[in-house]
Amino acid sequence: MNMETILLLAHTEADGSLAKSAREALHAARMLNKVVAGSNLVVGLVGEHIQAAANSIVAGPATKYFGVTGGEFSQSRYSTDAVAAEAICKAAQATIVVAPATSRWARVLPGVAQRLGGRADTHVTGVADAGGKPTVSRWYYRQRMEATLSRTQRPWFVLVDPGSQPACECGAGTATIELLSVALTGACKRTTVIGVREPKADAQTIRPDAQLLFVTGAGWTKKQSDGQTHVPEAEKIILDFLKATRSSLGSSKSLVDLGGEGQAVLPFLSHLNQIGQTGSTPRHPKGLSTCCHGEEPHTVGWRFINERRAISLDSNCGWARGKADVLYVSDAFKVMARVNELLAK
Ligand SMILES: Cc1cc2nc3c(=O)[nH]c(=O)nc-3n(C[C@H](O)[C@H](O)[C@H](O)COP(=O)(O)OP(=O)(O)OC[C@H]3O[C@@H](n4cnc5c(N)ncnc54)[C@H](O)[C@@H]3O)c2cc1C
């Protein structure tokens, strides 16, 4: 029997810490380590500083730590990240590489798998035991079908979706890291990171760790009972609610598409907020939909929302047809204004 070496491959954050997504991937790596008899679990870290990150998990199950460190590895850059990951995989002789599916790793690791003659599976949401054989699960067709799969090809790269696992709380100590030196050729330095452009903190409305997903639909911009639209009022109600609750903001497709049609829109919404078949499928314990009809292409994006409520004027909307646990047939302007009043108290 070939012994498997399972490598948790993580990059550190700007402050040298390990993100929650890395600890979640470590949990998944540990699960695989338990499944495969005789397997070995090691950790590989990439970043400008990695010692604190290694120290923070050293009381965990990993037997060895590898690292690539230095200023060139502080930023997300395909060329430098790829050589660092490749060097660690080779030094660790990794057969299964488990990594968090951060945007940084997601764009690099399938390429590293190619360089090493391996295979990569992305969007993994679970690991399981099939009679001692490591298997992973992931969803297909916009989260409609869940598949469990296993591979014989090695190295096997497994990118674990953030939010799908409990984070490993391993305990701290002092880690001994085998530092690897990586030759950076000219091509590695071709891309220079000159800065990061991102929305202001209060304009950042997508919050994957929020307890509540708050969804806005096209109804917020439609003519109301007085025959008028009330977009500025809608904007204030929605932003007040988000400010008070720190919920994550989702939207129906109709509402984010309105901008392209030259209609009055909510300026803080973009297609990134869109939930559904052609949008995202976030994970939150609770969801509240407002002014949205709850059609199937939208509600399919609610697959991982556990407790669902909706406010719509239409008692015959999709939410009433088994898509929500509770439907308030009511005017969302009035309900949310009252909710905001109560929150303000
Ligand atoms: C191939 C395909 C892919 C698609 N992908 C997606 C997707 O990923 N995501 C997505 O969202 N849609 C998607 N759609 C579109 C989807 O079918 C719906 O058209 C869309 O979700 C409707 O958005 P809506 O409910 O906000 O708007 P509407 O259908 O216009 O509904 C607005 C609702 O607001 C209610 N309302 C109005 N005023 C108030 C008020 N004061 N208080 C309470 N309720 C009020 C109305 O009663 C109505 O029910 C897709 C469609 C297709 C064909």
**Helical proportion, percent range:** 10-25%
- Tell me about the biggest sheet? 9 strands, mixed
Helical stretch tally:
9
Strand order of the largest sheet: 7-6-5-8-4-1-2-3-9
Number of strands: 14
The outline comes out as elongated
What ligand species are in this complex?
flavin-adenine dinucleotide
Give the uncertain stretches in residue-range form: none
Question: Structural class, from secondary structure content?
Answer: alpha/beta
| C-alpha Rg (nearest Å) | 23 Å
Overall average pLDDT: 93
What gap, in angstroms, lies between the N and C termini? 65 Å
**β-sheet strand percentage:** 25-35%
How would you spell out the order of helices and strands?
EHEHEHEHHEEEEEEHEHEHEEH
SSE blueprint:
Elements: E1 5-11, H1 20-35, E2 40-47, H2 51-57, E3 64-69, H3 78-92, E4 96-100, H4 103-106, H5 109-115, E5 119-130, E6 133-140, E7 145-149, E8 156-160, E9 177-179, E10 212-216, H6 231-245, E11 248-251, H7 253-257, E12 284-290, H8 296-299, E13 305-312, E14 326-329, H9 332-344
Parallel strand pairs: 1-2, 1-4, 2-3, 3-9, 4-8, 5-8, 10-11, 10-12, 12-13, 13-14
Antiparallel strand pairs: 5-6, 6-7
Helix pairs in contact: 3-5, 6-9
The protein binds flavin-adenine dinucleotide (FAD).
Task: Describe what this molecule looks like in 3D.
- By secondary structure, this protein is of the alpha/beta class.
- It has helices at residues 20-35, 51-57, 78-92, 103-106, 109-115, 231-245, 253-257, 296-299, 332-344, and strands spanning 5-11, 40-47, 64-69, 96-100, 119-130, 133-140, 145-149, 156-160, 177-179, 212-216, 248-251, 284-290, 305-312, 326-329.
- Helix 3 packs across helix 5 (109-115) and helix 6 runs parallel beside helix 9 (332-344).
- It is elongated.
- The termini are far apart.
- The structure holds flavin-adenine dinucleotide.
- Flavin-adenine dinucleotide is lined by residues 217-219, 222, 224, 252-255, 274-279, 291-293, 295, 297-298, 301, 311-314, 317, 331-333.
